[in-house]
């Protein structure tokens, strides 16, 4: 008997895009050597773009959105995964070109999966999600470029969002002094509870600035892009590194070469979607080791996956603080 399950299905017609909860069967799933019973997902900025259609994230129709999930292996012909094993997936075109995580079942390539790190629950893995995994990749980039705590503070932009919240918690535990940039001044207490030492207004960085400013931080993790990234670079200390991982303000970068040729600043690009498996395993192992679970719990709220459509415009409007775990019933 063919198994039926529920999923959020995005369809596109001449009238526009539509999102509806639909009944599907295993025959609707895409090719792969592992089938996963999905138990948890989350909502990231990219998910918000996909569900609302505000940007052309989806490149295959119809599409199940959700760029990541955690769950248990149902069936597998992949040598690394056995039925009952707990797994995490981030990226690899999930929710863009491959049917995504807002579904009770998913079938995909086992090479895309990461075993759930020891000590983490599936819910905690999605409290981290792609946002937290991206934050860890950015921290690894700073470490690789020798931005150590003794070199000076690290700027985190979009500080109250998912990437920013996890980045602050990670950096603080690793001994860094964190400068948090936010457009939500009412979140100062929240950001300081995560470990931020200083809060600056988004407006300090979001307007066009000088090619080179005073040296303020040894490194930065930026999820905004545009003028914010340009100003972060212009105010980075000699030999520092800025890890760029987002485009919340825009995809443009109207910057100067001055930080690069006068201060030896490095701009490190962070891609979470196609990152090779060894780097994924390293990031998830470090998250299990270095992320304060109490702080993770403090930044997380749990919602039903049926709330995803309502949450999508909220995350794009910057109204979602921290991380949201979606429980898939």
**Main pleated-sheet profile:** 7 strands, mixed
Rg calc: 20 Å
CATH topology of the largest domain: Quinone Oxidoreductase, Chain A, domain 1
Distance between the termini: 21 Å
Tally of individual domains: 2
Classification by helices and strands: alpha/beta
Structural write-up:
With 329 residues, this protein is an alpha/beta fold. It folds into 2 domains: 4-116 and 299-327, Alpha-Beta Complex (Quinone Oxidoreductase, Chain A, domain 1), CATH 3.90.180; 130-269, Rossmann fold (3-Layer(aba) Sandwich), CATH 3.40.50.720. It contains 10 helices and 15 strands. Strands 3, 4, 5, 6, 7, 14 and 15 form a 7-stranded mixed beta sheet that branches. Strands 10-9-8-11-12-13 form a 6-stranded parallel beta sheet, with helices on both faces. Helix 3 (162-173) links the parallel strand 8 and strand 9 (178-182).
Question: What is the strand and helix layout of this fold?
Answer:
Blueprint (H helix, E strand, L loop, with lengths): L3 E10 L2 E10 L8 E9 L2 H8 L15 E9 L9 E5 L14 E4 L5 E2 L6 H23 L9 E3 L5 H12 L4 E5 L5 H7 L1 E6 L1 H4 L10 E6 L3 H9 L1 E9 L13 H6 L2 E4 L7 H14 L2 H6 L1 E5 L3 H9 L6 E5 L2
Parallel strand pairs: 8-9, 8-11, 9-10, 11-12, 12-13, 14-15
Antiparallel strand pairs: 1-2, 3-4, 3-6, 3-15, 4-5, 5-7
Helix pairs in contact: 1-10, 2-3, 2-8
Provide a quick synopsis of the model:
This protein is α/β, with parallel strands linked by helices. The chain contains ten helices and 15 strands. The chain folds into two domains: 4-116 and 299-327, Medium-chain alcohol dehydrogenases, catalytic domain (Quinone Oxidoreductase, Chain A, domain 1), CATH 3.90.180; 130-269, Rossmann fold (3-Layer(aba) Sandwich), CATH 3.40.50.720.
């Amino acid at each position: 008997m063919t198994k039926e399950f529920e999923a959020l299905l995005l369809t596109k017609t001449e009238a526009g895009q539509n999102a509806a909860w639909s009944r599907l069967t295993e025959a609707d799933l895409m090719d792969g050597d592992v089938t996963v019973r999905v138990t948890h997902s989350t909502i990231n900025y990219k998910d918000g773009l996909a569900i609302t259609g505000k940007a052309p994230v989806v490149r295959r129709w119809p599409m199940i959105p959700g760029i990541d999930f955690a769950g248990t292996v149902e069936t597998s012909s992949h040598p690394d995964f056995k039925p009952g094993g707990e797994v995490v997936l981030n990226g690899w075109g999930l929710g863009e070109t491959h049917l995504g995580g807002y579904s009770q079942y998913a079938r995909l390539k086992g090479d895309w999966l990461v075993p759930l790190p020891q000590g983490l629950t599936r819910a905690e893995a999605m409290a981290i999600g792609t946002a937290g995994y991206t934050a860890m990749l950015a921290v690894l980039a700073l470490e690789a470029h020798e931005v150590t705590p003794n070199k000076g503070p690290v700027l985190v932009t979009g500080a109250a969002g998912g990437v920013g919240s996890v980045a602050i918690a990670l950096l603080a535990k690793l001994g860094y002094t964190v400068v948090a940039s936010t457009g939500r001044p009412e979140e100062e207490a929240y950001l300081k509870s995560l470990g931020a030492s200083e809060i600056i207004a988004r407006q300090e960085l979001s307007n066009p600035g000088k090619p080179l400013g005073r040296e303020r931080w040894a490194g930065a993790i930026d999820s905004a892009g545009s003028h914010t990234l340009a100003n972060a670079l212009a105010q980075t200390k000699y030999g520092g590194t800025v890890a760029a991982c987002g485009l919340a303000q825009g995809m443009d970068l109207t910057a100067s070469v001055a930080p690069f040729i006068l201060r030896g600043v490095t701009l490190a690009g962070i891609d979470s979607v196609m990152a090779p498996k060894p780097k994924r395993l390293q990031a998830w192992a470090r998250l299990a080791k270095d992320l304060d679970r109490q702080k993770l719990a403090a930044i997380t709220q749990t919602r039903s996956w049926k709330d995803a459509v309502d949450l999508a415009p909220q995350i794009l409007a910057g109204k979602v603080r921290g991380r949201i775990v979606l429980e898939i019933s």
